[in-house]
Design goal:
This protein is α+β, with helices and mostly antiparallel strands. The protein is built from four helices and two strands, in the order H-H-H-H-E-E. It starts with a helix and ends with a strand.
Length: 88
Amino acid sequence: MFVRIFRPDKVIPVIQKMIKKEKELGPQYIVPPPFDMEKSFSDSSNKVPIIIVLSPGADPMNELLKLAGQMKARVDSISLGQGQGKIA
């Protein structure tokens, strides 16, 4: 509570530091796993689509185009507001 009151900018780094040092937890609870487009595609179907929620700076377009090239699939682009959306 002390950190939250006097240094709100340090709350997340302090929590991350505590999690990293905890025996039962560790760094694997802080670092997100890398996104695997091929695995996501193999888990999907026409009834189970892939939904990608983007955060600022994230752009999976290159991975999508690479996978489409490997599978010889056509990719059509549609605009979804400020960003770009792709449908394979």
